[in-house]
């Protein structure tokens, strides 16, 4: 998008951010997100609002934002909510080795309902009464919004009148393929073959618990799963999970088997299909899904990003470092490494990809030893990226790996990479067919 097309969005950001940022800074930021990183406009504006301290929605009341329940995103740190108490109870819990009384229940307004927890017993709330919950923080649990009141929170009686619409709560599970799972989905049914399963001991609020996790797959992809209950899952068997919910980690969907979920063994519908194979996707499909496990993509290398070439790492945690200082371990004696950070484009979309030393050496012919020698001879490390660039730019590659997402868009951590040989005659014939079909 050119600057004229970006200008209305810059003006909108200026109003939201109340002139905290100059127009030039906003234009540069928006241009970087949209045109350089390929992020869609709404995601770009959301990232910029977060970066410069703007709020997603609502209006300011003191230091908090006032919102309706239906507008809650699940990650607000400071929000005011006026709602009716639909249900309330006090209960005893054990937190950090101590017994504690908390208040929990359900709130409702004209946009929806949400569970709430007040982490003290200092209020006597009445069912059916309306209150203002000030300075609440919002989280999600089991894919549902949860209103939390901590030490900064205050609950005040309100004279407001709130009529709750009649609602029918349905727990009907919707069948879904693994390749179609997205963060935020709830009440889904998934059939898949267990590729791996393990038990892990974790500590939750001072208590040791066992979580059962692993990898399952169908003919559209793979997904990590986790469960707090023992369903006696075994590698190689095919199961049907109903009423599961999907959370995400860095854009990668994760299937959660909750207390309402049911697990049953079913006949394997996949036959002799090798479900351990990678899933082939276009870059547009990858961008729309936000992430995934063991995905194969192909395309043209259109850019070699900064941070490519010869880099330095901490020998203890393997983090990349600058100036011989690690954020975790302080002053260190760094070790050399080689990598590429590329942008791959297949015509339907583009994503960033990170290739390690082994793959960088394989695709460019530049070894770590050669890179270190050349860097020392020239007195700079930046020359390595310049040496690599002409060897990789405009090459067609097939990449396999996991795709994660952040505010800059999807990024593939590549585990396998090869050059892709193009059949020029076949490609030309296909293009001619497309052109003729459009005439």
Number of helices in the DSSP assignment: 8
| Shape field | globular
Tell me about the largest β-sheet.
5 strands, mixed, barrel
Spatial strand sequence of the major β-sheet: 3-4-5-7-6
**Range of helix content:** 10-25%
Highlighted features:
439 residues; alpha+beta; five-stranded mixed β-barrel; five-stranded mixed barrel; 21% helix; globular
Compose a concise summary of this entry.
Helices cover 21% and strands 43% of the residues. The protein is an alpha+beta fold.
Question: Could you explain how this protein is built, in words?
Answer:
The chain has 439 residues and is an alpha+beta fold. Helix content is 21%, strand content 43%. The chain is built from 8 helices and 25 strands. It has a 5-stranded mixed β-barrel. A 5-stranded mixed β-barrel has the order 10-11-12-14-13. α2 (23-36) packs across α3 (41-51). The chain is globular, with a radius of gyration of 26 Å. Residues 55-62 and 167-171 have low confidence and may be disordered.
Describe how the helices and strands are arranged.
Blueprint: H1 3-16, H2 23-36, H3 41-51, E1 59-61, E2 64-66, E3 79-95, E4 98-109, E5 112-118, E6 130-141, E7 144-149, E8 154-157, E9 174-175, E10 188-204, E11 207-218, E12 221-227, E13 238-249, E14 252-257, E15 262-265, E16 279-280, H4 283-289, E17 292-304, E18 309-313, E19 320-321, E20 325-326, E21 330-331, E22 335-345, E23 350-355, H5 357-364, H6 368-378, H7 383-392, E24 396-406, E25 409-419, H8 424-438
Parallel strand pairs: 2-3, 5-7, 9-10, 12-14, 16-17, 23-25
Antiparallel strand pairs: 1-2, 3-4, 3-6, 4-5, 6-7, 6-8, 10-11, 10-13, 11-12, 13-14, 13-15, 17-22, 17-24, 18-19, 18-22, 20-21, 22-23, 24-25
């Amino acid at each position: 998008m050119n600057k004229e097309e970006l200008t209305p969005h810059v003006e909108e950001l200026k109003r939201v951010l109340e002139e905290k940022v100059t127009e030039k800074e906003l234009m540069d930021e928006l241009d970087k997100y949209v045109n350089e990183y390929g992020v869609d406009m709404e995601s770009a504006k959301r990232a910029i609002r977060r970066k410069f301290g703007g709020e997603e929605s609502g209006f300011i009341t003191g230091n908090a934002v006032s919102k309706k329940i239906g507008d809650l995103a699940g990650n607000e740190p400071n929000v005011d909510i006026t709602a009716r108490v639909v249900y309330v109870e006090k209960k005893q819990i054990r937190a950090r080795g101590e017994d504690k009384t908390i208040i929990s229940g359900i709130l409702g307004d004209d946009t929806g309902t949400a569970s709430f927890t007040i982490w003290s017993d200092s209020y006597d709330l009445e069912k059916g009464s309306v209150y203002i919950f000030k300075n609440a923080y919002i989280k999600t649990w089991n894919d549902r919004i949860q209103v939390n009141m901590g030490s900064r929170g205050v609950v005040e009686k309100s004279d407001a009148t709130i009529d709750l619409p009649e609602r029918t709560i349905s727990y009907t599970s919707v069948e879904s393929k693994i390749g179609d799972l997205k963060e935020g989905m709830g009440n889904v049914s998934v059939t898949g073959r267990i590729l791996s399963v393990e038990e892990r001991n974790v500590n939750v609020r001072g208590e040791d618990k066992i979580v059962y996790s692993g990898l399952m797959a169908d003919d559209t992809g793979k997904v990590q799963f986790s469960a707090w209950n023992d369903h006696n899952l075994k590698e190689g068997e095919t199961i049907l999970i109903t009423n599961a919910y999907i959370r995400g980690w860095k854009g990668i969907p994760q299937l959660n088997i909750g207390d309402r979920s049911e697990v049953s063994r079913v006949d394997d519908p996949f036959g002799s299909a090798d479900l351990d194979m990678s899933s082939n996707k276009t870059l547009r499909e990858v961008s729309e899904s936000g992430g995934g496990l063991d995905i194969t993509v192909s395309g043209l290398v259109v850019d070699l990003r900064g941070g490519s070439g010869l880099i330095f790492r901490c020998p203890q945690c393997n983090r990349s470092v600058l100036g011989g200082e690690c954020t975790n371990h302080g002053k260190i004696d760094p070790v050399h490494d080689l990598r590429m950070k590329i942008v791959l484009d297949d015509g339907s979309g583009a994503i960033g990809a990170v290739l390690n030393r082994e793959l960088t050496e394989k695709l460019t012919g530049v070894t770590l030893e050669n890179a270190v020698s050349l860097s020392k001879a020239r007195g700079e490390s930046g020359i390595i990226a310049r040496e690599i660039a002409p060897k990789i730019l405009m090459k067609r590659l097939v990449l396999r790996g996991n795709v994660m997402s952040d505010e800059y868009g999807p990024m593939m951590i590549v585990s396998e990479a090869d050059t892709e040989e193009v059949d020029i005659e076949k490609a030309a014939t296909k293009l001619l067919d497309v052109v003729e079909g459009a005439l």
